[in-house]
Amino acid sequence: MKFSIGYYFFDENENPISYILDKNIDKIEEVYFPWVNIETCRSSLNDTGGYIDWSAQERLEYDLVGIHKRNIKLNLLMNSNCYGEKSISEYLMKNVCSVIDRIESLVGLPDTVTTTSPAIAYIVKTHYKSIEVRASINMMIGNIEGMKYLSELFDGFYIRRENNRNLSVIRSLKKWADNNGKKLYILANSGCMSYCSGQIFHDNLVAHEKQISQVINMKDFNPYTCWNYYSNPDNWPEIIRNTSWIRPEDIDNYKDLFSVIKIASRMSSRPAETIQAYIDRSYDGNLLNIMEPSHGSLLFPYIIDNKRFPKDWFNKVSDCDKNCKKCGYCDKVFKKVFVSIGSDRNPYVNYSAMT
Known about the structure:
alpha/beta; globular
């Protein structure tokens, strides 16, 4: 079992991506990366509110050559939620082909293209038959039918994050994928809320981020559902109960189900720390620091202490009927792992009553 990591220019210690690759050369299967001026499911690589980093293209191409020389696979992201009026256009086809042709001139064809767009999947399938076409996690494919519907266009599928802790469902997806010559992938460290009703809206905002930044927007409206929801401390236990992340310590429970596990690290403020935690199968710190998105600042000065999780955590949450009102296990765990920074004092414990 190896890892798929997100491309970044420099990590939290100002090291280039080559540093983490050389340190873990036999543990990393691929690097997934965006292209300059092509919409993906994250912010632009070189455009920050109109300020253009003109060196971004040169740095990206330099790094791609270095990654390729290390025999690490390349996974091109074209996974925006929307391409607007160009969504099924010849313009899009020419644009996609020009990017892939440019990459081929540098290092050969990318090994994989990951997309949310059936149109882009069709383009790649038609013009570059050797490239694996992978369905993005943002397509929210959670059952066999979802894979069947697009099986002619996609070679591999990221499973819907809400299935991460349901091993019986994963096994059924795995069986179908194996029997039909398809590959299955999983994202380990999503900090998103499960079944988030604001996800499509949020993904569309990111897809049109450039246009949105050019107009006057409402100053009193926060468009991010999770940040609004978690701004109320009463909802903080949902970070344990209603999420899909997998702790680094639990990742080997998936080794018979996935040959490659994705680590969200492209927009992380601590990409090297996050990647290393999963490679080492251990993390001593605030669990939110290695999630994407993190939400850590919302809880400050409290943290989710990863080393306080009980030993039966994974077995409990992976064999669960999701009847949270009846169970209460996750609420008990939250009270155990939720601590004040720099202290072992837990706000859920009445210390004065103990003295």
